[in-house]
Design a protein that fits this description.
4 domains, Hypothetical protein af1432, elongated, alpha+beta, binds adenosine-5'-triphosphate, six-stranded mixed sheet, two-stranded antiparallel ribbon, 446 residues, 24 helices, Beta Polymerase, domain 2, binds magnesium ion
């Protein structure tokens, strides 16, 4: 990809233009990371770029950006530009084509404001990005209060870069972020979701969680999580402390590669606790009756608010709604257990259960039981094909209706328990337990 990007730069240069790598890819190259993409900045105007790349996509040409494909990769070529006022807080009202230096100054953070000359390997740094990269600092370019006011998404980007890169946020930038945090409510939900997801995907997600809470962004974007603070729990099951501490601890116990639905189910699994808190005087203990159900409802509300797709909402909702059932698994009949384990999000829910236990009382007996059962059941599908189906039963004379469904479930239970292993056995069982007037005669030669 770098070679292809370099060819794009060369094409622009051979036509007499200036052209440089710009922004995130320069940060990554200087930081020793592999860039996800290469953005190219040039003094060529969009019509000039299009003359050199006639197949270029002009969608962004209005803002001075042309999309070009080379070597199977897409590259954004943007004309050096300054940006006008941000009256809507997300998009500049106008852009004017200008110098590389001004182009650097419109960017968000110093580490994102550098250019790179791929021919000489020189970094062109007008904003002190190299020093901040070495010092591992996220620092706004210019006055941080003004820069956040132009586009409040930059507050979330600051937290995201600090999390993903494991950098610190420079004190003035941090102070401005805290002052401006209430305005995070004005960022579009889709943009919030994209940034939060990048934080949750990072192995350093707990650092992101702390920065979101300490900055005040969490209180604006996910107040339900901040509300877990001070929600006391029975100490015999939760020696670690309140629900907030428990949730944070679980986040820390997740494997580095945990996916977004799993992280969200950790964040929200006990979100119904503050709303269901009660004190049982007789037993002298705190209870949260129905917190799983309330939590699942709240989860759906939060995820809809952030415009998550339905398949993700269903996965997280299932994790929250079912997390209390795991304490019953050792008492389940085999058929019920197999059905529980065969549900679509079981693997992720099992991991939620593991960190739920590890982040509180530490007893993993239910988790170990389920792992052993998974090995024991591994030889065949958890839910194998049915031995008989509805057509078979109707052919025997059973009328369609609820009774038919009950019979099929009974037979499947026995199949899952290992009591019925073939079609013949299932038919024989039916003849005994649900005989038809005439089939009974057929199976009884006497
Ligand atoms: P990554 O692609 O790894 O998420 P990036 O730094 O490349 O990080 P992009 O969103 O791809 O981020 O943006 C490319 C560049 O555009 C940034 O490096 C930065 O210079 C500039 N930029 C992006 N978003 C903003 C913004 N909201 N305000 C100011 N400059 C921005
Ligand atoms: Mg990028």
């Amino acid at each position: 990809m770098r070679q292809a990007a370099q060819e794009v730069v060369r094409t622009l240069r051979e036509a007499g233009h200036r052209a440089l790598f710009a922004g995130g890819c320069v940060r990554d190259l200087e930081h020793g990371a592999e860039p996800k993409d290469y953005d190219i900045a040039t003094d060529a105007t969009p019509p000039e770029i299009l003359r050199l790349f006639p197949k270029g996509n002009t969608v962004g040409a209005h803002f001075g950006v042309v999309l070009v494909r080379r070597g199977g990769f897409d590259f954004e070529i943007a004309t050096f530009r300054a940006e006008g006022a941000y009256s809507d807080g997300r998009r500049p009202d106008s852009v004017t084509f200008t110098t590389p230096e001004e182009d650097a100054r419109r960017r968000d953070f110093t580490i994102n404001g550098m250019f790179f000359d791929p021919d000489t390997g020189a970094v062109i740094d007008y904003v002190g990005g190299e020093a901040d990269l070495k010092a591992r600092l996220i620092r706004a370019i210019g006055d941080p209060v003004a820069r956040f006011r132009e586009d409040y998404l930059r507050m979330l980007r600051a937290v995201r870069f600090a999390t993903v890169l494991d950098f610190e946020i420079e004190p003035h930038t941090w102070a401005a972020l805290k002052v401006r945090a209430p305005h995070a409510a004005e960022i579009s939900p889709e943009r919030v979701r994209e940034e939060l997801d990048k934080i949750w995907r990072s192995p350093r997600r707990v650092k992101g969680f702390d920065l979101l809470v300490d900055s005040g962004l969490m209180g604006v974007l996910l107040p339900e999580v901040v509300n877990l603070r001070g929600c006391e729990q029975p100490p015999q099951f939760h020696p670690e402390g309140d629900v907030f501490t428990h949730t944070r601890l679980m986040l820390d116990l997740l494997p580095p590669e945990a996916d977004v639905p799993l992280v969200l189910s950790v964040l929200f699994h006990d979100i119904g606790k503050p709303g269901t808190y009660s004190y049982d005087a007789e037993a002298d203990r705190i209870r949260f009756n129905g917190h799983d159900k309330l939590g699942a409802e709240m989860t759906v509300g939060i995820l809809r608010r952030l415009r998550y797709p339905n398949h993700l909402i269903e996965a997280v909702e299932s994790g929250v709604a079912n997390h209390m059932i795991f304490k019953d698994v050792q008492r389940m009949r085999t058929a019920k257990l197999k059905r529980f384990m065969a549900r679509p999000h079981f693997e992720s829910e099992l991991e939620l259960h593991r960190v739920d236990c590890a982040g509180s009382h530490g007893m993993l007996d239910n988790w170990e039981f389920l792992r052993e059962k998974a090995v024991e059941f591994a030889a065949e599908p958890l839910i194998p094909p049915r031995l008989v189906n509805g057509h078979d039963l109707m052919a025997l004379g059973h009328p369609a209706g609820p009774r038919l469904g009950e019979l099929l479930t009974q037979i499947q239970d026995l199949q899952l328990e290992g009591a019925l292993t073939s079609r013949e056995e299932a038919l024989a069982w039916l003849a005994v337990h649900a005989p038809m007037p005439d089939s009974a005669a057929k199976t009884d030669p006497a």
